[in-house]
Amino acid sequence: MAIAHELAAQQREISVSEFFAKNRHLLGFDNKKKALLTTIKEAVDNSLDACEEADILPEISVEVIDMQNDRFRIIVEDNGPGIVKKQIPNIFAKLLYGSKFHRMRQSRGQQGIGISASVMYAQLTTGRSAKITSKIGQREQAHYYELHINVQKNSPEIAKEDVVEWKKERGTRVELDIEASYSAGNQSVDEYLKQTAIANPSCTIIYTNPKAEQVIFPRVSSEQPKKPKEIKPHPYGVELGVLMNMLRFSDDRTIHSFLINEFSKVGGEAAKQILENAAIPPQSKPREMSREMIERLVEGIKRTKIQNPPTDCLSPIGQDLIEKGLRKEINAEFYASVTRSPAVYRGNPFQIEVGIAYGGTQPADQPIRIMRFANRVPLLYQQSACAVTKSIIQTAWRGYGLEQSQGAVPAGPCTLMVHMASVWVPFTSESKEAIAHYPEIIREIKLAVQEAGRRLSIYVNKKRRVADQQERVSIFENYIPEVADALARLSGAGKEKIIAAMRKMLEKNKEYIQAHKEAHQVEERKEEQARLGGFEDE
Prior knowledge:
Helix content is 40%, strand content 18%. It has 15 helices and 14 strands. Helix 9 crosses helix 10.
């Protein structure tokens, strides 16, 4: 008994911030290099989401200052709508605080963890407060905060609060001092911002790296992304425990009206059919449903044919803008893009897009470069664990003009971009670095990749035919003297006359090949301009 009381005395509630402070690797702070990327990513994602919700063309400044001894100051500033004063402490210094978790529509942030986790990491590694400045309008005051997180209570602590002069009309500025390390490469801040610019073509990013070098990624489109609409959950995606909770807190008087009001694509007839299949009276009260009745309701939903959920909750990049983004940042000779029709997994709508850039300066004997995106956000880590990589490996690339070993990523001078837009991307962890292997998602990625591959194969085959013709002409040209000598001996004609005739024939062949090549280039250009806004004759 004494031991039980002693053990009971040791039990205490663990706050969510306390848990993540000890398990920060779950949020993407595995090491110093990754911590730098994650901190910037969370701030930039917040800025992009805020600007898109307010119909503002984003202009984001990212500055990384080397403070020496593995200390860096991160400054991210945007031209977004700003944040209301009373919300600033909770947004930046309280984990699991946000507005998007319960909203069924596409967005970058979802869990209310991101930027507050970056604030917590800065606090843990440098002990410095997060410095936040925000302004919601030209005639409004700019509010300045220095914030800490009370890890035990998961609540904000205000170290300083002030009103400051700020020349910006509106926007938010975040300043964090963190322990980190910087290096270039495929998993660097530089690469993340480059890929962000590709997937967000209406955004301008001004980046100052730790060497004080400034890089500008200008927008290539002034067209605002389509604003996704919020939808209700689809019945095919609801689980027993979730449904029990929904029924428990429902204000609907009957189970029939509950089904119509709480789910998308459930009208009067569909609700009636569900209840018939579940053998539940339509007038049953939601709050009085027994567990056995709820189990029958779940089975009734599975046995009823219900339309797929609406897809206006999604905002894909679009084929034209994918190509524009790739052309701006990747030097290649051929570009193509594919946007699939929306599909559904577990009742959640999603849409797959693929962009491909072939040729240019990329090495032909190395694995292709894969760029993965979820809701316009680059995924730079855990590539091998992602559904995107699995789908690419399972595709037979030899038929599309690339080399491929069994069970491996194809090789060739190619960049392949895959984007998943969804109301709820099924990440494999809280750090949001890889997409889970749902069969429906893998199938859609493979279909999109195969369509892009077919377009690539047409280009590669045309290019190969022209190259083969040129090679044959070159071989023939090298042997003209020997062939002419043999013909002269056989026919008795002059060797010089035969050489002149053969060279004339050769020139005609060269002209034909060049004309064919130019016609192919014009055809490619016409197709490109048709996709990107109309062809103009030179």
